[in-house]
């Protein structure tokens, strides 16, 4: 474990294994702690790096009440890979982390050798997904206004349902709740799925993403997540989709992910 200074913030970074670099980017709310088991398995297939994104749990934000944007997260990921000598890396991003990974590959193609997008949180593809995401954001913002410390819980309940939240072990609920500060910063920022002004791609922008890409979707996830995944898959030069069982918290070390990473490394 290490603390790495990038772009004015200190990131908590964990490294496991050896070989071709693999970078894991968690969703919102989350942290590298919630990827620990998956990171151990990913480390059997390469040099696995995971980190708490700025403002989340063990990483700092620029300031206590900072607004965090997609630009910030992309710049942090690129700087992290450069500082630790892990370019290019196969980047695995879940949910919001998938959107960050996609934009990282678009802006910094030299930093990304392959992409794994686990239900990437891009909800600006059509009117229906935009309406669904706007409603989710309003519900989360309303809950956070009542109790800021429950912002992360509100995201979880909206994305996976009340029963999923209450069914979590107490330790897992505490781990998610610790990410509330990062949630609030993203609500105040731009470009992310929880932002008032989320990222919206125009025709041709994703042509710059040339990395081999696996887009993974869970069968029980809300329909907007399926549509977003299909939309992205159709617009990337070298992408395929794989469906798995379960809900939105797709295992970053699912067998389909490991097989893709191994095939990419062999190639």
Automatic annotation (TrEMBL):
Pfam families, alphabetized: Abhydrolase_1 (PF00561)
Taxonomy, superkingdom = Bacteria
Q: Where is the AB hydrolase-1 domain?
A: 21-158
Instruction: Give TM segment ranges.
Output: none
Gene3D superfamilies attached here?
alpha/beta hydrolase
Question: Which keywords does the record carry?
Answer: Hydrolase
InterPro entries per the UniProt record, alphabetical = AB_hydrolase_1, AB_hydrolase_fold, AB_hydrolase_sf
**UniProt-recorded name of the protein:** AB hydrolase-1 domain-containing protein
